[in-house]
Amino acid sequence: MFPQKGKAKKPQDEKKRASDPEGYFDLAKKELLNNPNAFLKELIGYDKDHIPPALIAKVKPMMEHEDMAEAKVKSASGALVTVRLWLCAMITYHEVLLIVNPKRAIAAEMSAKLDVVMANLNEKRAQVKAIDDKLAKLSAEQAALEAKSKALNDEIDDCGKKLIRAEKMIGGLAGEKDRWTQIVADLTTQLTLVVGDSLVAAGAISYSGSFTSKYREDLEEIWRTSLTEQEINFTKNITMSAVLGDPVTIGAWGVAGLPSDKLSVENGIIMFKSRRWPLMIDP
Prior knowledge:
- By secondary structure, this protein is mostly helical.
- The chain has 10 helices and no strands.
């Protein structure tokens, strides 16, 4: 049958087997079953995927012979029943392969194509991943730039507000500049008058305390006339109160109960500005 190992069979032996099945069985018992282990190994290791079609065409009619019926085989040898089953299985397997192998070839071709497609897909996936990574990096850079842009815009806005305040301050200082300039000019002028003004104030503190208000005014007028004759500059109509009087202090005196008339105010100035015990008339 299928196992081809062992001695070659002569044509007359084949004819004898075909014409005498029982003799065939006897021969099988003698040649195949005398060493069951070796025969079993041949069956197990048989190359069932490459059975020659000519061998199938030769064996299949033999298996369909009435003498190869399971009962006949069993009557000849119970061990050969399994061999018959093996033969039927090999024939069936070969017939199935005739259907399956083309499909296997198609499947292999499709698998090869699938491998190519999967390789291309993996390559595209790698490219997509690289693009996604680059996009994530660019997105992070964009977020950082947007945050920096926002910070810069906030800083620009803050600087704009500071510029507006600075312009207002500069505008206000421009007015202050004019005022300060005028104050400097006034102080410069007053500096040239301070000697004459001080002489009038010092004379009033030293000598006018014991006189009435009218006499004090006459004394100040005499001193102003003398300053003019001596060509000493002084403020026009300068008085002791104008030189030494402080409006805030005079107001506090009024709150404390000092009368607000000219004589009383002059008496207060004489008391606070004198270095000696003053002599004056209390109204």
